[in-house]
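Lab notes, practical 5.
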Amino acid sequence: RQKMSSPSEPPETDPAFIAKEEDFTKLPSELSHVDWTKPISWGKYEPYPPSHDADAITTTDDDGDKQTVAFKPPHQALEFHVHATSGRARYTTVHLPHGPVATPVFMPVGTKGTLKGLSPMDVTNSDALNNQIILANTYHLALQPGTELIRDAGGLHNFMNWDRNILTDSGGFQMVSLLKLAEITEEGVTFENPFLSDNNDKEGETNSGNKKRTRQEATESGSMMLLRPEDSIYHQNNIGSDIIMALDDVVSSVADDKTRFQIATYRTLRWLDRCFAAHRRPHDQNLFPIVQGGLDVSRGGLRDVCLAGFRERDDKAPGYAIGGLAGGESKDDFWKVVDHCCRALPDTKPRYLMGVGYPLDLVVCTGLGVDMYDCVYPT
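Output from the prediction step:
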């Protein structure tokens, strides 16, 4: 088996990307020029108002009728074709290193490199399934069996005997699902390792009577796992997935803490820069940013701030994800955020709605312009 070329260890954090605590709630300097009275959008075509930066290649048949619109962003590992639209819904093909993916597409979740109860052959040989892309979980694979082992086995495709596309999340969702086991700082998020944690520690002492280990000591021993943006990208480079996600600061959509949402949104932009800087395989892996900002879709609100930040970095992103939803918010709030993000994100790139999989949601959100979905609901 061919070994994958990826770094032997995660890169160090560039201090230039680390904000001081007093700056956590300050608007990022690169957005100081933004006119917040205007909608945030770029790369738009019909049925949206066209943007001045829209650029595409349109082919025509012998009768002069428009055919496929092919968007070719400057990313070696992705090409995006829009075949047909109906309102804001669209039928597209996302060309990835392990084959084309027709959208709208639902991606089954293989958390630890396998779909529960199904082999890869069950998926590929079934007319009802025949999935061209599945999802795996960076956090869980980093814990067990470890991404270095997966890398040395030739990547997750070889490890699980899967010759189609894989998308990996970044570990950001675990900040919500495993919040009781996590501590979030500007550096990254530190998780308690559920397999190696000091489960018997009480009141600062262990059963042996020794003092409980410090967080640094626990991290070095493996009972705590530090996940920085650099670590998340390192693990995903090791895994070798076709689409990798930026590590974002995720807050539960039903949380009632405006300051926390503001800090998380601004931090998501800083962490995105760290992810781009740490990414060592842009030639064969596509790094998608994730829109955060809670349920704030007001003009100049937190979703707009995150979207405006992504617009500033658009040349580095082959596609986008919408995150921070499906956490217990009302359907009205949920759909408003999806609608807001789809109106802003460019038509030239795929849009992925994270953690969404109920049938009605798939229909409605496809009508709003979403292309890709994943959810643990079926598995």
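Observations recorded by the TA: The first strand starts at residue 57 and ends at 60. The mean pLDDT is 86.
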